[in-house]
Backbone:
């Protein structure tokens, strides 16, 4: 309780927010580096073939593909919230299985239409290694907005007025 008051005080909140931003930047950079390493490994092991990139189907427009990627990212992040929330915990140790099944099903369902990336790092760095950047905005705008919006209905609609996982009011 005292720690949460310390964090919420105006004197210390800017320092904690700064560390949250640094943590988020660290995760983003880590994902980008991991994606580069995976693409380089793929390029080295398959010498005579090209590195596959995410592409949208000819029948789809960029807005539709971005919306599809946003819905996929929303569903994946919402599943992660639901599988890891101690307030519900119906999954118990099956939470990672639910997350993996959701990610696999969505990639299979949306792959032919928009690639089913759900993660900007996957699409962008494979495009960097391959040198093809067509429709990359689809893989940034949709997933970022979809993932950002996923937390709102979970805390506001599913658990209105209850304490959130971090201990502060929702």
Residues:
């Amino acid at each position: 309780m005292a720690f949460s008051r310390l964090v919420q005080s105006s004197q210390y909140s800017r320092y904690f927010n700064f560390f949250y931003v640094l943590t988020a930047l660290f995760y983003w950079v880590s994902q980008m580096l991991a994606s580069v390493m995976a693409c380089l490994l793929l390029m080295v092991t398959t010498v005579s073939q090209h590195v596959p990139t995410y592409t949208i189907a000819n029948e789809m427009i960029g807005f539709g593909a971005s919306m599809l990627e946003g819905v996929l990212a929303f569903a994946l992040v919402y599943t992660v919230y639901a599988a890891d929330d101690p307030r519900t915990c119906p999954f118990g140790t099956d939470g990672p299985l639910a997350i993996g099944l959701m990610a696999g099903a969505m990639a299979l369902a949306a792959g032919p239409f928009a690639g089913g990336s759900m993660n900007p790092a996957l699409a962008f760095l494979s495009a960097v290694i391959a040198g093809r950047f067509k429709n990359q905005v689809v893989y940034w705008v949709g997933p970022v907005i979809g993932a950002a919006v996923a937390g709102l209905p979970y805390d506001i609609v599913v658990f209105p007025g209850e304490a959130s996982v971090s201990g502060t009011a929702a």
About this structure: The chain has a mean pLDDT of 76. The radius of gyration is 19 Å. DSSP finds six helices and no strands in the chain. The CA atoms of residues 155 and 170 lie 6 Å apart.
